[in-house]
Amino acid sequence: MNELSKLGAARLSRLVNKGSVSSREIVTAFLNRIDALNPLHNAIVSLRDREDILQDADMADRAFASGDAT
Q1: What distance in Å separates the CA atoms of residue 42 and residue 12, rounded to the nearest whole number?
Q2: Looking at beta carbons, which pairs linking 4-7 to residues 24 or more positions away fall under 8 Å?
Q3: For the chain, first and last CA: distance in Å?
Q4: In terms of Cα–Cα distance, which of 59, 58, 34 is closest to 46?
Q5: Mean pLDDT over all residues of the chain?
Q6: What is the mean pLDDT of residues 30-53?
Q7: Are 31 and 53 within 8 A, CB to CB?
Q8: What's the pLDDT at 35?
Q9: Measured between alpha carbons, how far is residue 22 from residues 27, 37, 40, 42, 43 in Å?
Q10: pLDDT tens digit string along 10-32?
Q11: Distance CA 28, CA 32 (A)
Q12: SS3 category, 1
């Protein structure tokens, strides 16, 4: 789903809970949106390392898969 960054948090949560989308996919969609829009708006001055952000998303996905997500 290419439009994940346009969905609200409640909808994204439902998609993750249904297994339709992963945290990594959501984070990637938002990072891609930042990449596309920030050069024009310069709204984000500093962003953590992309790989660190994606690793956190992977940890969330693993926690959800194992039933440890809250």
Answers
A1: 26
A2: 4/29, 4/30, 5/29, 5/30, 5/32, 5/33
A3: 24
A4: 34
A5: 93
A6: 93
A7: yes
A8: 94
A9: 9, 23, 28, 28, 26
A10: 999 999 999 999 999 999 999 99
A11: 6
A12: coil
**Whole-number CA gyration radius for the chain:** 13
pLDDT for 70 equals: 62
Structure tokens at 50: 């992309």
State mean pLDDT over 55-59.
97
Which amino acid would we find at residue 37? L
* In contact, 54 and 24? CB cutoff 8 Å: yes
Which DSSP state fits 67? T
> Average of pLDDT values for 37-61?
94
Distance of CA 10 to the CA centre of its chain: 13
In angstroms, the Cα distances linking 66 to 49, 59, 69 are: 26, 11, 8
What is the C-alpha to C-alpha distance for residues 61 and 47, in angstroms, rounded to an integer? 21
